[in-house]
């Protein structure tokens, strides 16, 4: 019966998808939302937004206000009906709803997926119901994930955020945001949950792959571009996960990610740094509150985090949406509320605006109504929270233009062919060359008769898709990319060699088990083929099942039998190239010592196979840099950048002639590291003024030259040292970077402007200030490969 009704609903509404609203609410070019025949202030686009909010709030009932503080999860999660049905008039959202979230299931999974215009039409049908069938006609904000491309079937796929970070290319990241925002707008989404601003300080944490890196300045610089790129399209960008989310104890990624061991100063300087700067400068419309606690207080129930910091200090004007189950966890996980209702009170009082979850919205709305009636939540608090939601809807223009105007445009915009080259370019620029002994790479096809490709990740495609991005996309894996590039010049053979993991993993990382007969035979087959080949390309690492949300690792070596396979291949004496597909830093000490060439590919996008092949055979010169430190052993964790003086030092007595050594010292690959097929020289560093004021700008310029024989990209990195200060500061801090392309023999001047905010520290009173004194500018190719230094001095 319901299916019959849906078909009738489609027939009734599809013809209206591009038509103006019916005459009953359409008057001389404006929409009469409450159908009273009068243009109310909130319906008048010429009125100031704050005045429109006040007018609308004055007309809303308790029921309507509380409905604006909850989310409907999409089809088959909470919203059981694909499109409006008669039952909706009896559902709690008959009085409206803040948001409909489709990021896990929804219209995109149904008959409305293709062509894309069908999805836009379906969004219009749902939106029209809320505009026409609720009393005040408050439109809905439709949201979806977008951390590496919009999470919609076959939308434009981007590599994982850790790959995006490795490009160090701000213009490229802005373009990625523009694509995600443009596609979201065309499909009918008005809110994209991106970017992730978590600072990934523990490589064991499963969600490292969803972060740009471990350094707050880099995360901020790239996150800012993503926010502005998305919002250029009239779509809200929602930052996540606020706050101190990315350092659960021991890197363990459980349901609540509780107990982050972060000191207050470190919290502000590292984990809140991106939010403070981006909220102030880029004005995102959304923030997602995390479900961890900080110092015993759940962030989603913290007035300090959600109101004092975010709104009063940073100036946030949008709305805060909770991460899934954050509200429930106040009662069930953190247990600071003895009832679910008390948990609702705490989050509302803290300043959390919209509750999202997989449970019905009435689980939040009904207790909230009781709290208001009982006087436990004031009308003032309720109105303030609702106003923040309405403000975003007004700023997005939903009250004045609630529908997708041209639904057919989605078919041309989403995953358009002109984005394919961009997707491949982003994959290319994300590749990081970790080792290239004796210039083994690039491989010369005309001298290779037979190539062996081996390893389970050569044919795996899960790592190209991963969560929170486009699904069901066409992927070119590494084997396909190599075969396509090699063509008929070389014979390409594939042998899997082993699985990603063995049968007893991860227990086998604690007590290694003997190889089974099947595993021995598989490795032996790869070895036999290697002996008959001119070069071996081993594609190893992690798949999506071994890395990601709720998939943290206690060991960071190659899982399963992959290292045994690699060692057996190396023993053949044939040159071996290692391609890493992974989402977090790995402890690859043996690999680094004995394998001559290593290329880090992270979790690439759909064009990753092509980009990797081009790079292997010289069609592209890699220029990506690491945004996370690779430790030599998990015993060194935390080992990351930036760090305090002495915190990365060796033990007393360490040294070439010392005794009593007790610890491994130094990173395997440091932050900012990455090689090229060419070489670069630095010269003519100029810092002006040499003596300046604490509130003035510092201008820095440096010449960078390509001193090799191949064109290539260099990421010029600027680090700043505050030599003496009132509190202990970081040994060195990234404060600028630019990716530049240089032809052989070409020189370019790279310029940076350091603002007072780049020189700030938190003093003893926890105040952000620029202290007078001596500073050092360090320019280099990585945090440890510093080529030039220059001093400047600031006075009051």
UniProtKB/TrEMBL annotation:
One of its GO terms (molecular function) is hydrolase activity. It comes from the Bacteria. Pfam families: Fn3-like, Glyco_hydro_3, Glyco_hydro_3_C. Keywords: Hydrolase, Signal. Residues 714-783 form the Fibronectin type III-like domain. Residues 1-19 form the signal peptide. InterPro entries: BXL (IPR044993), Fn3-like (IPR026891), GH (IPR017853), Glyco_hydro_3_C (IPR002772), Glyco_hydro_3_C_sf (IPR036881), Glyco_hydro_3_N (IPR001764), Glyco_hydro_3_N_sf (IPR036962), Ig-like_fold (IPR013783). Belongs to the glycosyl hydrolase 3 family. This is Glycoside hydrolase family 3 C-terminal domain-containing protein.
